[in-house]
Amino acid sequence: MMDVKEIRNYLPHRYPFLLVDRVLALEPGESITAIKNVTVNEPFFNGHFPDHPVMPGVLIVEAMAQAAGVLGFKTMDKTPEDGSIYYFVGADNLRFKRPVVPGDQLQLDAKVISERRGIWKFDVRASVDGETVSSATILCADRKV
């Protein structure tokens, strides 16, 4: 549904921090399904961990937040070029179930729970081959730059 070129219109992140490669499905105001292809060439694998590469949990959370950000921007029909930025401001009930390693395709799912005065709450989940690797409830704030 969206390739990385279009995703870049909705997220201010750039390499090496853009963690959404493709959007598979998106229903504004409701949900998004996106993917992150995890390759051994990712810069963080050089130090985390060289002999046993594992994607850092904070980056899995960031990938889920970025997918939620695309959903929020599309729902509001805004982009960062409009002078709006989405800040990741909190996570509740964060859980990690298994490591993410090179070769995995991380599926990122986010659902809108609520929005009040620019504070969005999302139910997010990351999975590999249908198996949950991480889940949380996250908060994002839409603010003017």
Automatic annotation (TrEMBL):
UniProt keyword Transmembrane present: no
Active site residues of this protein: 48
Pfam families: FabA
Catalytic activity of the protein: a (3R)-hydroxyacyl-[ACP] = a (2E)-enoyl-[ACP] + H2O
Statement: the UniProt record of this protein carries the keyword Cell cycle: no
InterPro entries the UniProt entry points to: FabA_FabZ (IPR013114), FabZ (IPR010084), HotDog_dom_sf (IPR029069)
Chief location bin: cytoplasm
Enzyme class: lyase
The entry's keywords: Cytoplasm, Lipid A biosynthesis, Lipid biosynthesis, Lipid metabolism, Lyase
Xref: NCBIfam families: fabZ, PRK00006.1
Full protein name: 3-hydroxyacyl-[acyl-carrier-protein] dehydratase FabZ
Organism: Marinobacterium sediminicola
Gene coding for it: fabZ
